[in-house]
Amino acid sequence: MDGRFKLDNQLCFRLYTASRLITQAYHPLLSQYGLTYPQYLVLLVLWEKDSQPVNDIAKRLMLETNTVTPLLKRMEAEGILTRTQGKTDARQMIVKLTRKGRELQDKLSEVPETVGSSVLCESVTAETVPTLFRMLDDIIEQLKHHNNESNC
Amino acid sequence: MDGRFKLDNQLCFRLYTASRLITQAYHPLLSQYGLTYPQYLVLLVLWEKDSQPVNDIAKRLMLETNTVTPLLKRMEAEGILTRTQGKTDARQMIVKLTRKGRELQDKLSEVPETVGSSVLCESVTAETVPTLFRMLDDIIEQLKHHNNESNC
DNA sequence: AATTTTTATATCGTTCACGATGCAAATATA
DNA sequence: TATATTTGCATCGTGAACGATATAAAAATT
Questions:
Q1: Whole-model pTM?
Q2: Is the pLDDT of residue B7 over 90?
Q3: B49 touches chain A (CB under 8 A)
Q4: Distances from the Cα of B77 to the Cαs of B45, B71, B72, B101, B120, in angstroms?
Q5: Which residues are registered as beta bridge partners of A130?
């Protein structure tokens, strides 16, 4: 009996589960401000650099625009950001934070540390996190190319 | 300017992205048999041990029954499995593979290796995978407890 | 300048995820 | 044995993800 199909041997299942559980850890912190985790990711992108076209945000998050567009519309409806047609390129929609969107950064200032500390454990410490980051970055880079090549 | 909010410093975003991209890597392999990745996970569980109640499957995948039930119904509609009321406990729905569901194991025999090899890279090799597994397992274990405690 | 191609975004349909809630069967308690 | 509680599953609503497709503006080509 070989273990090819054993759930316990699957990297993907671990990533899938870890991702879901850590998103759940964010939930109580974000939901009090009416935010979801993907919406929080958009805020991270815009806090780093405000006023970006939809495509740049999507690329940064490695998502398709058909995922990001509805997400941005919901955030616009909440008054967190505005979407205005680009001047130089009329196809682009420029996304800009409102005052409310900028103020959320102060309100959420404790979030990264709170979630971060709830993940630390025996094998994941301040010393080993860089190793984990490098492995995940390599996997992401690898898969980005792999998935693109399949589409040709 | 502190880097708390920098996307590049976030573990969760890496997990979220890696999980999505690896699921996309499964897609061309699974879709030719009409399967999604979560459905493939259900098959992994049932191939390991056939004939389980919904709750056991959900627990194994760390999902809620309200996620698993519709998923199983779709698979039942595809003729991959059957759902029959339990005899000893009438509340339970026992999930059992059909012939078609069992035969999928042969057809998908190349999948684990194919996806596995597409993930291997400089920092993720046969030698380092156990380290990565242990880190992810620890994170999952940590978060499982953390998230449960918050619900009390 | 007219036509083709590419690019940026949006729309649609399907399938997860998951919080909230409902219901009936099983179990525990009075 | 009657009542209360717990358990197993299902239903509903919302928000992602994403493949497929549409549309209009911009860029490239003829």
A1: 0.95
A2: no
A3: no
A4: 19, 10, 9, 12, 36
A5: none
* Range of weakest confidence among A71-80, A96-105, B2-11, B41-50: B2-11
Closest alpha carbon to A115 in A38, A37, A58? A37
Q: Is the distance from CB of A82 to CB of A76 less than 8 angstroms?
A: yes
- Which residue has tokens 């964010």? A26
The strands making up A52-53's β-sheet, listed across from edge to edge, are A52-53, A93-97, A81-85
Spatial distance between the Cα atoms of B55 and A24, rounded to a whole number of angstroms:
20
The residue type at B82: T
Instruction: Return residues 76-105 of B near A (CB < 8 Å).
Output: 105
Strand C nearby residues, CB < 7 A: A 16, 20, 23-24, 27, 53-56, 58, 65-66, 69-70, 72-73, 83, 86, 89, 91-94; B 36-39, 63-64, 66-67, 70-71, 74, 88-91
- When CB atoms are compared, the residue of A21, A135, A143 closest to B25 is A143
B2 pairs with which residues across the strands?
none
What pLDDT is stored for residue A147 in this prediction? 92
A89 vs A103: CA distance, rounded Å: 29
Which burial class, exposed, middle or buried, applies to B75 when counting CB atoms under 10 A from its CB (0-12, 13-18, 19+)? buried
Helices (H), A1-152: 11-31, 37-48, 54-61, 65-77, 99-107, 111-119, 129-150
